[in-house]
Amino acid sequence: MTDRNNYDTTFGRSILGGLQGFRHIYAGTVPPAEVQKRRARNKAARKSRRANRG
Q1: pLDDT value of residue 8
Q2: Residues of the chain with pLDDT under 50
Q3: Where are the domains positioned within the chain?
Q4: In sequence order, what DSSP letters do the residues of the chain get, joined into one string?
């Protein structure tokens, strides 16, 4: 077993740096009306799953 940190490489640091500190990748690309429709659909699906679990 080694004590090597796999994230302590140039590649690992660049990936971690690219994933931190930026806004959400889809921010502003979906119209607000579509977001509301998706949220309503997801809420109904969650409710249905809860009911199906018993």
Answers
A1: 81
A2: none
A3: 10-53
A4: -----TTSSHHHHHHHHHHSS---TTTTTS-HHHHHHHHHHHHHHHHHHHHHH-
Which residues fall within 8 angstroms of residue 7, CB to CB, at 6 or more apart? 13, 16
At residue 45, the pLDDT reads 96
Instruction: Give CA–CA dist 33/52, Å, rounded.
Output: 29
Token duo for residue 29: 């690309």
pLDDT at 2: 64
* Residue type present at position 13: R
Q: How far apart are CA 26 and CA 9, in angstroms?
A: 28
